[in-house]
Amino acid sequence: MGFTKQNARNKLRIAWSNCGTDSDPVKINDLTITPEPLSVPGLLTLTADVDLKSNITSPIKVSVIVKKKSFFGWVEIPCLDNIGSCTYEDVCTLTPFKEPCPPIFSKHNVPCTCPITQ
């Protein structure tokens, strides 16, 4: 995911790319982050269209790379307190939800605990 600075102070434009391979069990088809531009600090909403090709169980390792476009080109933002360019050894341990899942998850058949099944 890359960040591009806006004219207004602390406003960011967001761009993303799926850097996985065809053999990955998860494919991100679309990712939307709102509001656009993103205000920092502030709240954001993340919406994703994802294909799950197989059941996945803990541990689920995820790597996220965040870059900012600067005068010198793209600069990778380091991982600080699990924010930035981080590798999460098991995203199942990061879920803030306990049973039951929030209603919006249940309505759209989105799991909020591991394992994640097709």
TrEMBL record:
Q: Does the keyword Phosphoprotein apply?
A: no
Superkingdom as given in the UniProt entry: Eukaryota
Any one Gene Ontology MF annotation carried by this entry is: enzyme activator activity
Q: Could you tell me the keywords of this UniProt record?
A: Signal
The UniProt record lists the keyword Transmembrane helix: no
**Which GO biological-process labels does this protein carry?**
ganglioside catabolic process
Q: Which SUPFAM superfamilies does the record associate with it?
A: Ganglioside M2 (gm2) activator (SSF63707)
Instruction: Give GO cellular component annotations, separated by semicolons.
Output: cytoplasmic side of plasma membrane
Q: What name does the UniProt record give this protein?
A: MD-2-related lipid-recognition domain-containing protein
Species name for this entry?
Ladona fulva (Scarce chaser dragonfly)
- Give the classification, highest ranks: Eukaryota, Metazoa, Ecdysozoa, Arthropoda, Hexapoda
